[in-house]
Amino acid sequence: MPATCDSLIEDIEDIVSAQDPKPHDRLFVRKSIVPHVRKRNKLKQDGWTEDLQADSVIPGTQKIWVKTWGCSHNNSDGEYMAGQLAAYGYKITENSSSADLWLLNSCTVKNPAEDHFRNSIKKAQEQDKKVVVAGCVPQAQPRMDYLKGLSIIGVQQIDRVVEVVEETIKGHSVRLLGQKKEKGKRLGGARLDLPKIRKNPLIEIISINTGCLNACTYCKTKHARGDLASYSVEELVDRAIQSFQEGVCEIWLTSEDTGAYGRDIGTDLPTLLWKLVEVIPEGAMLRLGMTNPPYILEHLEEMAKILLHPRVYSFLHVPVQTGSDSVLMDMKREYCIADFKQVADFLKERVPGITIATDIICGFPGETEADFKETLKLVQEYKFPSLFINQFYPRPGTPAAKMEQVHAQVKKQRTRELSQLFQSYTPYDHKMSLNSKY
Q1: Which tens digits make up the pLDDT trace of 157-215?
Q2: Cβ atoms 63, 45 nearer than 8 A
Q3: Helix (H) or strand (E) holding 133
Q4: CA angle 47–50–53, rounded 5-degree value
Q5: CA-CA distance, 284 to 280, in Å (whole number)?
Q6: What is the 3-state secondary structure (H, E, C) of 37-85?
Q7: Which of 47, 135, 320, 420 has the most CB atoms less than 10 A away?
Q8: Taking a C-beta distance cutoff of 8 angstroms, is the pair 316, 257 a contact?
Q9: What pLDDT, in 10s, does the model give residues 72-102?
Q10: What residues contact 281, with CB distance under 8 A and at least 6 apart?
Q11: CA 289 to CA 72: how far, in whole Å?
């Protein structure tokens, strides 16, 4: 059978035994790894050519540039990958032009983020850089044409980054995209005790779970992150303690939906938060990430008490996405506007001075002018001090991409109109996050 590009790119997921040391355990003790890959010498196929370097190249001595797009979960993953590479001897550089290899950690939420990612791959190839791609784009769509021949690290495989970079430096292409399981149950991803290079040395971003329980019709991230898989309370508390010992003074909790935390392992978000509060030292703070309305509704009393704690920021990000129940149904968001208002009203009453941040999508398929007016009405009523305004982008493979689309000019006009409303009631112009969340 003739070889194809896809057949030459093998998954090395099962090559290294579970008993073998991971990069974190062998920071300075190298173990020979022979992945199941085949070398290509000036192979011309499907319109591209690859020249392999000699095996004399010594991994661990190169400069690596790490670029991350997207949410705080993605940023935490990027920090973990940079930390492991640095611990192994690679030099993490801020100068992309001097780097030998680019590690590009992608976001699949909106078209512009993927466009930047794809353009960066092209730029790296033009500069003859080695490339490793990570994040939600290759996890969700690993067979995209522009990813051919590239090494890929799956979102649950970031603890294997050293192995992938080593092989890529040698001229091999490898892909790690498997799902981590234990006794048939999907695990929450990489270990939390891995080394990190934090963008802000005073802030530790902790992903408390991966994936979510929803099936929103516009969301591509679900294709990459999958269903809910929570870390244990003990793991998360240990990570927080470790971070404070390393000089961190803020913990940011993140995930695709923090409110759903623990539903797969028999616990819940308030239980975790009370345990974390116990280990926060004086002068340090805890900040909660995004939670969807359906799950936070069950814990309003406890959440209000936690948000009143002196070492917890009085802040909660609760995305509403639209002011129209009809559009929410088309989005399959599993709540109505009355549910969102119940959350917002309860917390505003019980937690004086609380900041409630939210998201709005302008121009979702089928959104009428009357639907949009309902959104404007909701924003005017609550005057959200932090508002993420996103123009709708149809993502390939999602149900929303197949729906009847709102005209581009209408989407842009609604985005402008909502932005103007936001600017009209707040003096904090620097907080406006139009199209800047991702």
Answers
A1: 999 999 999 999 999 999 998 766 555 454 567 889 999 999 999 999 999 999 999 99
A2: no
A3: strand 130-135
A4: 175
A5: 6
A6: CCCCCCEEECCEEECCCCCCCCCCCCEEEEEECCCHHHHHHHHHHHHHH
A7: 135
A8: no
A9: 999 999 999 999 999 999 999 999 999 999 9
A10: 244
A11: 9
